[in-house]
Amino acid sequence: MNHLFRLSAGLFRPGTGVYRRRPVSERHVSLVASRLFSSAPENNELGQLIKKDKVVVFIKGTPAQPMCGFSNAVVQILRMHGVDDYASYNVLEDQDLRQGVKDFSNWPTIPQVYFNGEFVGGCDILLQMHQNGDLVEELKKLGIHSALLDANKDEQKK
User: Fold this and answer.
1) DSSP secondary structure letters along the chain
2) What integer best gives the mean pLDDT of the chain?
3) What positions does the domain Glutaredoxin occupy (predicted)?
4) The model's pTM
């Protein structure tokens, strides 16, 4: 993947909330909050966290209620591709998490997107990948079929 950056060590505070989007039905998605850590985190806990799910995003707010335009753009891009099963972490809940993920990726801004434990980039990178078609290919590598492929087939039939 062209847009990967080398990961460095980072720390964040115990008790950070995670929001996992899981389909409840075809039209509804629930957000389930869970506590991550009960003891002091080790340096590799953030590394383990980003590897637990195929797609992990650190955003301001939640997927249901993004609190900044860039976070909203990431959520919308994923939604357009039909990606609804991903882990999302609200960095506004914990300043240590917010700084820890920046240090971990060596990327200064939020949102941050990870695929299979590897840093992809922020909103600008994800938008560029969406625009040039790379996102469809990267999702395919994750075993995720982009909904945009189906939309394009429907357009061609018309």
Assistant:
1) -TT----------TT-EEEEEEESSSS-EEEEEEE--SSPPPTTHHHHHHHSSSEEEEESB-SSSBSSHHHHHHHHHHHHTT----EEEEGGG-HHHHHHHHHHHT--SS-EEEETTEEEE-HHHHHHHHHHTHHHHHHHHTT---HHHHHHHHHHH-
2) 76
3) 55-120
4) 0.71
